[in-house]
User: Fold DUF4386 domain-containing protein from Roseovarius mucosus.
Amino acid sequence: MVTHTLTPELAGRVRLAGLLYLVIIIAGLGAELVLRGPLIDLGNAETTATAIIEAPGRFRLAIAADLLMALCDAGLAILFYLIFRVIAPGLALSAMVFRLIQTVLIAANLMALQTAWLLLAKAPGMADAHKLALVFLDLHGHGYDLGLVFFGASSLMMGGLVWRSGLFAKAFGVGLAVAGLVYLVGSGLRFFAPSLSSAFAPAYAITILAEVAFCLRLLLQRNPV
Assistant:
């Protein structure tokens, strides 16, 4: 089995990957859970419209955070390929492509949020505009989950690469692979069994734990002695 030999250049790439990963985690969770999430109630168009209209800066900052996340994700996908291509070139390339597909889908999906904002900004008192804006907000949620299907597949591949690399403890590879399965199952439920999505939601804590742990491991990479 081919393993990596740690060099100063490789260690630098690993730490840069950790930095990008940290920005992705903070921007992604911040946009969804802190900025945008509390404003949106998919069961009530009027309440959602009022909340967004009263906090336009917060809503648009969430879009900016997601855009920053997508930019960093594209860079991270390429960086991971450069780090792991020695281990398994085909698998590393596949992981990069699937992650980049996720990035493109999530970035393009921001237009659904922008459309919702334009509807509310240009017709703040129209009930029909409020209902249509809610449809676009719901569409954004589904588009995000579609991106996570590809991210889940990429995470499974990354789990295999980390396991085989010799650079990291195998537990990190297991964690990423399990996180990938959670993303795949959760996104599948969102599309095909939405009534079960709420019950499955706590499983996403596994993805946060696995990704934060791997991010910190990347950041703490030392140069070879």
Q: What stands out?
A: The chain has one domain: 8-219.
